[in-house]
Model the fold of this input.
Amino acid sequence: MSTPAAADPASTAPEQDPAQSPEPGGSKAVAGRRSKRRPGDVIFTGLSVGSGLLIFVTLALVAIFLTVRSIPAIRDSKELGGGPDAISLWSFAAPLVFGTVFAALLALIMAVPVSIGIALFISHFAPRRLATPLGFMIDLLAAVPSVVFGLWGGVWLVPKMQPLYELLNKYLGWFPLFGGEPSTPMRNLATASIVLAVMILPIITAVSREVFLQTPRLQEEAALALGATRWETIRAVVLPFGRSGVVSASMLGLGRALGETMAVLMVLSPGSTFSLHILEVGKHNTIAANIASQSAEATPDVMARLIFTGLVLFIITFVINALARAIVSRSAKA
Done:
């Protein structure tokens, strides 16, 4: 009886990966093959990196332009001893900053609750037949030019709001916001804030709606299965999940309100005070509206002061966006 021949060790040994070859040139060859990149990848990477850097370059150029062009106003200001006829930049810019921030905050206070309510209605309550066209209408409302909102506010809204303003001043005049002596036509900060609220409402609504629609469906069904009502599910699941998105949407709306020009210019009677009376006329103004109204006939000195206020608005917007980014990052980590 013949016994089977012993297996050849060379035939039974596992094949060795070239990447693990003990040959000195094996790893180098594999590394060389891996380092080869397709032309499409190189082009796409270059375009992506270049596009990202273009944003920083643009912001840097804008900041440099505003800083350089506002240096004459800073140098000749009363704060730096510019001379007997020098104008105080604080007296010139501070009331404009106050009016800009005040109007934007009032608009945000009015717009955010309504926007969240509309977004929740579209995403969780309205039937699809109604939610789809309503979402389209919200998106189209965001594309309406600001001059149209200005015409609507100055021609239609101001007369319609006058009886309400008179009632607020009569019965709630003890409250600082509704105090003072309003006059007609009531082109005041309250009307401008309402117009700004209508303008930023579609932006906040559209972003919040998309965030609420991304809520995990299993979490909502689990809450309903545990006996939660529709509102309790929204409060316990949807709103916490979309908190960072709502903050981002609100900051986008705030940025739009801070930089709005034509709508405010067409509705607001300008002033230069720190008054809290939003029903009084001729008490407030914003940086953007002031620049638009005075830049056409401005002398070099006045133009330098206007550019300085533009620099201040640029810094305010940058700081607000940075704070919003920090809040969103903290909410995401939590």
Remarks:
- The chain has a mean pLDDT of 86.
- The chain has one domain: 89-333.
- Residues 39-75 form the longest helix (37 residues).
